[in-house]
Each structure stands twice: as C-alpha cells, then as structure tokens.
Design a protein that fits this description.
The protein is mainly α and about 230 residues long. Helix content is about 85%, strand content about 0%. It has 11 helices and no strands. The chain is globular, with a radius of gyration of 20 Å. About 35% of the residues are buried.
Length: about 230
C-alpha cells in the first residue's frame, strides 16, 4: 500500500521520498516557535474563534513564503546579504515588540484592582490588533522561513518532473495539512485552559508574560541568525 501511495505521488506530482518528507515536516512543525506560541496564547486568553483567525493568518503567511521561495526570492536573499539582514532585523524587532507588549499587558493586569479589571479588560482587548493580521505578520517577518522552504522542499522535487510547480503545490498542501492538524490541537488545548485563566487573573497574567518573554527570545535568536 505504501509503495502504491509513494508511486502515485512520484508519478503524478513529482514528489520523491514522500515518507521522509512527511516525518521531517511533522518534526519541524511541532518544534516550538512564534507561530504556535502565538496561537496557543490567543486560544487560552480569547477563545477558539480568535485562535483560528490567528491560525489562518499563519497559513496565509506560510503560503506566501512558499510562493516567494518557488519564485526565487530565497536565492535573492542568499545573493544579497544586505537585504537579508534588513529583513532579518525588521522581523526580530517585530517579534521583540510583540513580546514587550505582552509583558506590559501582564504588568497592567497584575497592578489592576479586581473591581476595575472587568471594565478595563474589554478596551484592552479592543485595542489589540486582530489575530489574523498579527499572525500573518509574525509568519512573514522571518527570512529564515523563506530559506527553509526552498532548501527543504527542493530535496523532494523530482528534477526530471515536467511541472515542478505542481510538485511545490503538493508539498505545500501536505505541509499546510500537518500544520492545520497541529494548530487545531493547540487551539483546543488552549481553549481548555481558558476557563482556568478567566478565574485566576494572576495565572492569566503570568501566562501572557511568559509568552512575551519567549517572543523576546525569538526576536533575539532571529537577530543573531546568519545565512
């Protein structure tokens, strides 16, 4: 059965070593990163629907990066270190800014009086940017992701296949399905924690602060990344 599936993908989509690609993609997707941490935070603090808005922002960002990679933008970044560093530092600054905003939100929650918390929380949530837009920017503001897509995907495209764009589309679809499955699990895990966070303000603030610190760490890591 597995041989037939592999042969189908090789003959019809030009995808080689399907099972290696699947295993590699699963391990890469489940590694903690800004995308999954942001979706988990939104699910725990705001619920399932906003979290899925964030997830679809990530899917859109990843799709854009896949298309850019297939069009050769990754090669452009490799050939122009100055451009790579500009994009890299902008992305690092954005991740750090998100982390700082989360830390400030944590500090405000801890200082707020219980009586004022309910009235203050709605305006704070209203001021927060929409999850789709923020997740889209988080996904796009990482030049290393572009390099990953081109360096990883190209290994599984049959060089003799007549339509390599179809191969990239098939690999991208598989990657998005794995990402959807993983983010769905994260969303419902976060939603189960939401009621606990609503009842325990300090725990909610601590979770937001912890995620904020992680985002600052992601920004620092991206800032020190090299080609």
């Amino acid at each position: 059965m597995s041989i037939n599936i592999h042969s189908f993908f090789l003959i019809n989509l030009g995808i080689t070593d399907l099972w290696t690609f699947l295993l590699g993609t699963i391990f890469i997707v489940i590694l903690p990163g800004p995308n999954s941490m942001y979706v988990l935070s939104v699910a725990a603090q705001r619920g399932v629907r906003p979290a899925y808005q964030g997830a679809f922002g990530i899917f859109t960002g990843d799709l854009i990066l896949m298309v850019l990679s297939a069009c050769g933008v990754a090669s452009l970044l490799k050939a122009s270190p100055a451009l790579f560093y500009v994009v890299k530092y902008i992305g690092a600054a954005y991740l750090a800014w998100i982390g700082l905003q989360m830390l400030l939100g944590c500090w405000r929650k801890l200082r707020a009086k219980e009586s004022a918390h309910t009235s203050a929380e709605a305006p704070a949530n209203a001021r927060e940017s929409k999850p789709f837009r923020k997740a889209l920017l988080i996904s796009l503001m990482n030049p290393k992701a572009i390099l990953f897509f081109i360096s990883f995907f190209i290994q599984f495209v049959d060089p003799k296949f007549a339509a390599p764009a179809l191969s990239f589309a098939g690999l991208g679809l598989i990657c998005q399905l794995i990402s959807l499955t993983y983010l769905t699990a994260i969303i419902f895990l976060g939603a189960r924690l939401a009621e606990t966070f609503r009842r325990r303000r300090r725990l909610s603030a601590g979770m937001g602060g912890g995620v904020g610190a992680v985002f600052i760490g992601f920004g620092a890591k991206l800032a020190t990344a090299t080609l």
